[in-house]
Amino acid sequence: xxxxxxxxxxxxxxxxxxxxxxxxxxxxxxxxxxxxxxxxxxxxxxxxxxxxxxxxxxxxxxxxxxxxxxxxxxxxxxxxxxxxxxxxxxxxxxxxxxxxxxxxxxxxxxxxxxxxxxxxxxxxxxxxxxxxxxxxxxxxxxxxxxxxxxxxxxxxxxxxxxxxxxxxxxxxxxxxxxxxxxxxxxxxxxxxxxxxxxxxxxxx
Length: 204
Known about the structure:
The protein is mainly beta. It has one domain (13-203): Jelly Rolls. It is 11% helix and 41% strand.
């Protein structure tokens, strides 16, 4: 992983409050939050920000950070996506980056495209500090069956949070029509580690 990846040293207690509020609203409205990370509290995760542009250059605009989920029951509909990410902030000039587009795709188990959505990153990930919680991106209710994938293309517009410990094997790079396990070889130890993209799927 490149040294330019911004390390999120610690997440404040606001993140824990956010998670608690999300869990409460889930039980009240009968929504189900699907997650494929380690399941730890955000404050206990080893998180950093990643952009495909850093590793793949300009070709990174066509590389997606993908997470595999499984619909909990027949007829389950996806209502929104939660992504932890950050568009950045220049402390020297006290300015935000210019608007640029990210892209989200929903694909079935055979990678067939079910839904596509693009928008400007500053509409969701604008902050003077790195993220302490998830941003919700609403989509039209979409029925999914069995395994499906949420694919997020940062396109160099922002960084998406990834968990570097306790990889679950459900995170991938989607490129050239293939799902490639999201893992990195550490230059200092030659150890290969799996990562978890911080993406969640919410529906009922």
